[in-house]
Design a protein that fits this description.
By secondary structure, this protein is mainly alpha-helical. It has helices at 18-21, 24-51, 60-77, 87-91, 104-111, 122-133; strands spanning 2-6, 12-16, 54-56, 119-121. The structure holds iron/sulfur cluster. Iron/sulfur cluster (SF4) is lined by residues 66, 82, 84, 99-101, 104, 114-116, 118-119. Its EC number is 1.8.7.2.
Amino acid sequence: MYFELGTPGGATLEIVGDEADETDEASEERGKRREKALGRVRKFVETYVAKGKYGLYPEAEVVENVIQGLTDNLVEHGRMYCPCAPVEESKTKGSAMVCPCVPHHADIARQGYCDCALFASRDFVAQEALKKRR
Ligand code: SF4
């Protein structure tokens, strides 16, 4: 079976194989699993920012993309593997590349934000806010 779906950007998305063949029930179940996983990721991000020393990267769209990527990895691979690193490589490193990954402290200290641009230092967030006001 083969479907072509239009996307907002005008590109088409092909769905072939398992996803196209799944029953409505299976599709609904998959949707529920993803919603649950998305809720877990959002909760984790919210708590990490509320209780930790970092803020959110100051671009809501970028943050949302990373959250969606973490959710995809949680659903497909069972853990919140970093969405900006190759998952198969991350799997060989135990928990090091599960969000919040081991390198994020050093990355934030160096460039102001983690490599995925999900978390950022409070200073970086404040500086970006100042730039926007000018
Ligand atoms: S780079 Fe950022 S989003 Fe990616 S795993 Fe590390 S802390 Fe999480």
